[in-house]
Amino acid sequence: MLSFKSVLATIIAGALTCHASAQAQVFSLKPKTLDEVEAAQQAAKDSAEFEFLGTLSRLCLLPPSRSEDLSDKTPAYVEVPSSAPARSTWYGDPAKVFDQFYFVGGKVHSSWALKTSEGIILFDTIYPYNSEELIIGGLQKLGLDPKDIKYVIISHAHQDHIGGAEMIQKRYGARVVMSEPDWSLVERLPNRFKTMAPKRDIVAVDGMKITLGESTVTLWFTPGHTDGTQSFTFQVTDRGRPVNVVYSGGTALVYEWTLPEWSIKNLETYIASQRHLAEKAKETGASVLISNHSEFDSAYNKTRMLAGRGEGAHPFENGADWVQRYFKVTENCARATQLKVQQSFTPMR
């Protein structure tokens, strides 16, 4: 019969062997070599940290946006207004964000108003079913007069941003600014943009300046989300202190697995646009990044933080370094996606 010491020694030896085996299977001192896709995604994650998780998730982790819809069908919410999404899904209170810059958007989509001594510059106009309440009603709640809207600058011709432009142009005589590719898109698809098609007006080009009163907005051509997407840089003040802003006009990636050649090219265009806008943001010293979707800049949540700000930092002002990191997120997510499309695509010989 085995002694107690022998049995104990056998058990301990077996346990040590199992432990060593488990360690060998689970742990390794050898660093993992990332492939190109993983490396690009990791670079995006490192840049995002906890500040741009919405952008990281949408661009790097979620399924793609669809490629450009060129069907000419009238939207259901235009044909049957009662089919529009419930107010509770989109309504948000307006807010004064900087001394002369206002949020008049909702929970998901944003519209912004820049007040000057000679009138208002409006950026994007949300959907046709909620622009009346969010933009017109929002301006009035903030003590601003919608009749003072002099310019409507549209970042890109998708229904969630151009929706109220026709109404505002007709009602107040505002000038509408959009790039040539997106003006052409609206004109080619009259049913798709029914009630949302302003009369062709100012055609934006890269580097164009729109000046009203003491404020100047510089337009930058940044295609990739649509063929005519544009973004902006301008200055506001926070309690009298100058603050430079960059407005990213089109952030979501647009590609299709079934259209690999087109997708690879469009993603390359998008990457070039992100670098272009990052450069302009750096040149102007932009310390604030805003967008037209709250998932990218957390605008809806940040506006509700303003009331409790006190003497603290401005919730929208991240600093120039963080603004540059935003563009590293968008560029690297686009690159990772482009690589995945390339890997899945075998050109015909």
Labels describing this entry:
single chain; 349 residues; alpha/beta; Metallo-beta-lactamase, Chain A; seven-stranded mixed beta sheet; 12 helices; 41% helix
Report on the biggest sheet.
7 strands, mixed
**Coarse shape:** globular
CATH superfamily: Ribonuclease Z/Hydroxyacylglutathione hydrolase-like
What is the string of helix and strand elements?
HHHHEEEEHEHHEHEEEEEHEHHH
CATH architecture: 4-Layer Sandwich
Overall mean pLDDT stands at 91
Proportion of residues in β-strands? 15-25%
Biggest sheet: strand arrangement:
1-2-3-4-5-6-7
Briefly note the CATH topology name.
Metallo-beta-lactamase, Chain A
Helix content: 40-55%
Number of domains: 1
**Structural category:** alpha/beta
Short description:
It is built from 12 helices and 12 strands. With 349 residues, the chain is α/β, with parallel strands linked by helices.
